[in-house]
User: What shape does this take?
Amino acid sequence: MINRLMNRIKELEAPIVVGLDPTLKLLPPQLFEASKANFGETAEAVADAFFNYNKGLVDAVADLVPAVKPQIAMYEAFGIPGLEAFKKTVDYCHEKGLVVIGDIKRGDIGSTSEAYALGHLGATELGGTLYYGFDEDFATVNPYLGSDGVKPFIKVCEKEKKGIFVLVKTSNPSSGEFQDRLIDGRPLYEHVGDKVREWGEELMGESYSYVGAVVGATYPEMGKVLRKLMPKTLILVPGYGAQGGKGKDLVHFFNEDGLGAIVNSSRGIIAAYQQEKYSKYGAEGYADAARAAVLDMKADIAEALG
Assistant: This one.
């Protein structure tokens, strides 16, 4: 899967992933009203609206980007109907030829991590039949519990030819409370970067490892250090757009060949219609606004990379 993702990035000249993180505040009103007409003001109505929202977005951008990243928490907030919308979204994105990164941030003791890995990336055998759960292509993983929590994912990835992105330096303002703490004279995130490189050496694709890293766009200088520390690691870069990251901040996340990173934007794309720059599209044209935002993001990154 890492080879397919890298090939699509090169084909489209778009190291971009669109975060499918719907909320009621971002949802175009007409979609929720239509769903309420069928389901009432219920969790089922929200789930239906979320899926229709995602479908419109995916239809608008599938020819421009290689991947999408649905954040499972937005769906879990509405219980089982929400999770059903998450699964429908994953399946629809696959139908459109997109690589799906499940933003699940899982990581636990060995047996629990194995269950998470099987549920999201692998399969469980039932009566001689393999049952695939959510079936994403990649998943985000929290390494806080150490190798016990990560290696079950690597084992499943090796079997299924799928991948993970390990949280190394996240984009949120308080990430430094733990991640920047000095241990043996180096910040914790560098130690995590060392382990990501080590884990990745066990599972290499053609040019990059199946074990990627998450490094926030809001910390470009740290990204520069981590890029050198993990030369064969694909870096997933959140924090572009709504969180403040710009194309010029991203140069050091990439290798000299212009590869090695994939940049995420969520609200900046899926709710572009709410921005003044794209207000001409209105809520009815939310998908067209998202497409315009992707094209602008692509141009911004290309200009930054020269």
Observations:
- The CA atoms of residues 56 and 288 lie 9 Å apart.
- The first strand starts at residue 16 and ends at 20.
